[in-house]
Amino acid sequence: MDVQPFKIEVPEETLADLKERLAQTRWPDELPGTGWDYGTNMAYLKELVDYWQNSFDWRAQEEAINRFSHFKADVDGLGIHFIHQKGVGPDPMPLVLTHGWPGSFFEMSKITPLLADPASHGGDAADAFHVVTPSMPGYGFSDHPTKPGMHVLRVSDLWVKLMKDGLGYDRFGAQGGDWGASVTAYLGFAYPENLIGIHLTSMVRPTPYMGPGSTPLSEAEQALLKQREEWMQAEGGYSHIQGTKPQTLSYGLNDSPVGLAAWLVEKYRSWSDCGGDVESRFTKDELLTTITIYWAAQIINSSTRLYYETARHPWDMKQGERISVPAAMAVFPGEISLPPREWGERSYNVQRWTEMPCGGHFAALEEPERLAEDIRAFFRPLRN
Fold first, then answer.
1. What are the boundaries of each domain within the chain?
2. Which residue out of 117, 178, 273, 374 is catalytically annotated?
């Protein structure tokens, strides 16, 4: 496998064009006094866009990101961008971290140093990992798929090839949330001989086997399914359009940076443990770094297509199937759904279940220290 060093360098003309588009924004109307009830609040978005246009320093963020060790590899004909941060310790364990939507590899920027070099951050060098953080196909600075069929199960296949053939790691751990949790779960299911263990912050896929002979749902499980149904009715419009007509959506969001910012920042507010104040969890620089990656790499269409592809390749457990490798779940209270342990034990070999005191969907950005310590603790007894 051809693996080459990679450096993020957004062309100056892309940044100049961005500023021109921001300056020429045609703003819609808004009903007074509605806050965020109808979607992204205009007053906050204007504040964020003003900062993006006049104060945000992409070059400073780019320089900080490039301090990590970036590479690009040809995996089954697709250029996959990834960070490979070597661990500092006596025997680091290989660990692949997989992001979700609307995130990117940048979501792991706070947690990577804590995992790769724990001794420099108050931890034990014996807990060090070789941290591999890929950009999923169509995300970050990975290539855009050019044909149908790039769903989460396929991403898992690519990760095994990257880890084994590209980096020489025959056995490794995996961690992820959102789509990254689905990728991680399938790694544990399809490649148990390669996976040391899997650590998750969400359990949406696979759907457990619920047919004849299965254990009846507990009250907590019934409440989970009811909550998920209610959430989809109130918040799931984005998922439905991205899973059915992502191409139609992409014309507006790929052409208007303000439209893109509105589409993404609402999720950071709604899905985080921020109490309605998005900047209590994320700085403007953090929000705009993610948004600028989406803008500069033009990935809104290729990233949302993952919803379309995965909807057509569902993953449901069949009778007798289970993910056999050791699994851990960190439950953050601001997450989209909060499964009870018995739900996880239907499909997973649960060895650790942690109820976190705070944090939400973007756990690696919101609570990096708590998440890093839970990952270290889970994998500690598996290192031998």
1. 3-206+218-382
2. 178
